[in-house]
Amino acid sequence: MEAGGESSDVQVPVYNSTELLVKLQEKWKSGIKQPYPAMYSSVFGGVVVDPALMVIPIDDHMVHRGHGVFDTAMILDGYLYELDAHLNRFLNSAAKAKISSPFPKSTLRSILIQLTAVSQCKRGSLRYWLSSGPGDFLLSPSGCPTPAFYAVVIEDNYAQRKEGVKAITSTIPMKSPLFATMKNVNYLPNVLAVMEAEETGAFASIWVDEEGYIAEGPNVNVAFITKEKELVLPVFDKILSGCTAKRLLEVAFKLIELGLLKSARTGNITLEEGKNAAEMMYVGSGLPILPIVAWDELPIGDVLMTLHWHCYINKEELRCLLGSGKVGELTLALSDLLWEDMVAGPEAQRLRVFYV
């Protein structure tokens, strides 16, 4: 009987630990191969390879209060790409979020490498979190005795992306600089921004800040090739400092040496400047470059774009005339450079994993 004397045909089972494990394993082994070959948790101090056991305590403050930070490193052909750059950003994010690590950086690094080796994953991603830890359901983490460190390997056949996609300007308020510049788990604005884009048939959205400058996408940076052949990315003072974006600025010098690019830099970019760019792209670890051929249904990289902004041609008329833009040659050249750096670059960027 339910409270109040009303009857119900719902019977809630009560499981012991053995029965629960069986139920969880049935769920995970329902015929769909799960792409999570291994997880580490500092709560029990080791690695598990059974997806049914890849769990986080419900009273972990990262779960119910969002007090946690994370980062990701790519696994490509048995190498971890830019692990140290991502790990440094990870610890900077933790410091901003006032979360201490249960281990020094060298131990975190060793755990991540060992986890990847156990996973046998040769292509995918390594995602890891620092949390204020389990303890209670209050706001303050003072009741959490020890911060927690979690990590999981996710198998995925990442490959270079050369097709063009559409973007929109997000109407979802972007995060304040304090939260945008740390990679924390509070991703509801990011989720809503992606959903908003998908509802219009776009790949993702782009935030523009209160001063009218282009900021970033929901989980990627954006970059532009100007008509003067400059590679320009928004400055990182109000947005996440993208590891891949910064590496792009470094490898772009090869195109500068060839005379194909004039320069590569960060700077403030207005919405009008961005939409008048010759080429445009998303930049992120899992892409690493994704060309953008239309923004708010207007093509990128067509000379008639200038007519729209300066002569006020009707948007609908322009869409009919032009459709989507084309993937730019410099975008593809930068994509090739960055992908080559990821799969065959210098040892400083790629850490070989010795699988067990």
Automatic annotation (TrEMBL):
Required co-factor(s) are: pyridoxal 5'-phosphate
The EC designation for this entry is: 4.1.3.38
Species lineage: Eukaryota, Viridiplantae, Streptophyta, Embryophyta, Tracheophyta
Q: In which pathway does it act?
A: Cofactor biosynthesis; tetrahydrofolate biosynthesis; 4-aminobenzoate from chorismate: step 2/2
Species assigned in the record: Kingdonia uniflora
Per the record, the domain of life is Eukaryota
CDD domains referenced in this protein's UniProt entry, alphabetically: ADCL_like
GO terms, biological process: amino acid biosynthetic process; folic acid biosynthetic process
Protein name (Swiss-Prot/TrEMBL): aminodeoxychorismate lyase
Query: What is an example of a GO molecular function annotated in this UniProt entry?
Result: pyridoxal phosphate binding
- Catalysed reactions listed for this entry: 4-amino-4-deoxychorismate = 4-aminobenzoate + pyruvate + H(+)
Question: What is said about its interaction partners and assembly?
Answer: Homodimer.
What general EC class does the enzyme of this chain belong to? lyase
The protein's matches in InterPro entries, at most eight in alphabetical order, are given as: Aminodeoxychorismate_lyase_IV, Aminotrans_IV, Aminotransferase-like, BCAT-like_C, BCAT-like_N, Class-IV_PLP-Dep_Aminotrnsfr
List the Pfam families hit by this protein, alphabetically: Aminotran_4
Record's Gene3D superfamilies? Answer: 3.30.470.10, D-amino Acid Aminotransferase, subunit A, domain 2 (3.20.10.10)
Hey, what's the signal peptide range on this chain? none
